[in-house]
């Protein structure tokens, strides 16, 4: 009998680069994932890893969640999908659910898309249509996706990338408060006030002030490096938007569904945005995204000018409802707060014991650890950060780096993580940090990853 051939990571990865375009390829580690469950993933060669990356904070409910699998299995024999041209029940019931859980004490409606970027693109479009204006306000180092308007409105893309894609020119980037790297002698709240003042001064310029359709923001800037703004900054944004008639778009694609210790991160700040965008976790693994907002804004896009064929996907909507019910039933937002406190405590111990750990910050289980050359200079070190994640990967923990200097370890495990798993992961991190400090991880590993730059 012919023996079954064992497929290796390396062989498939070679094919990947032969057949798949570089524009969608952002690969940190040379492993092909075969299975995922809870807080663990397994590669095709059978190696097991604890997952602190969670497909970029996309599986708050844990991988391959039993309740979601059950709901899908029950539904799949009836239908996989039928969209747009006729009605189906799950997308209607999901919209009702979203309208009820998304903050905002006004009448709301929902639009569906398939990715976070597409949802943001749609939110910006309806804001343009609603206001009849053309300027978009965003923030430096923000990330909102790769669709045209949102690539144009994401501060994290380099000027040459914007140029290459002929980005939408009417986008203005404001400064987002980075309280760790704020100017010396200024308190975080005061720093927020200074930056709000800069926004106001821009809007007071006639050509801009009357022309801004929307300000899109992350309530905690994720890819910028887990930047938690002072409360008064977000409250101030609301006031500015009211004063100038600007649509305030809260991008909860990374922060939503319990990640930060609240169902939505905006709840930490006590304001109501006009529009909230959802993605990643919404579909519990299915490609689903949504724009939820004031009825009159959502309905300002003319019929058949938004969305795509599979928007409001049948099985995706069923998965989404099962995932949201799981979060609510198990109070995963509270769990994120509890486990987040524990994990932050453990990470702060690492900070106390290691010269290259500059800062530990975040909310709930959305945590960033800044890696620096040393505590005196606090000079960001993306090289050391990359070496740490490489050594951690070798020892069974998956994390990535991000942040405006590429030096922040991204810590975003499923919200279902147990203390023992946290302890094991922190042990791996400690060993990786020590190895990097002792010069045991060579420069050659840097070329093995396509890391956040
Ligand atoms: C805050 C935020 N907005 C939007 C997006 C884009 O989502 P997607 O990759 O599903 O298009 C991301 C993805 O990383 C994100 O973190």
Automatic annotation (TrEMBL):
Alphabetized Pfam families for the sequence: Aminotran_3 (PF00202)
GO molecular function, one term: transaminase activity
Cofactor(s) needed: pyridoxal 5'-phosphate
Alphabetized UniProt keyword annotations: Aminotransferase, Pyridoxal phosphate, Transferase
Keyword Transferase: yes
PROSITE patterns: AA_TRANSFER_CLASS_3
PANTHER family: AMINOTRANSFERASE CLASS III, LEUCINE_METHIONINE RACEMASE
Protein family membership: Belongs to the class-III pyridoxal-phosphate-dependent aminotransferase family.
UniProt protein name: 4-aminobutyrate aminotransferase
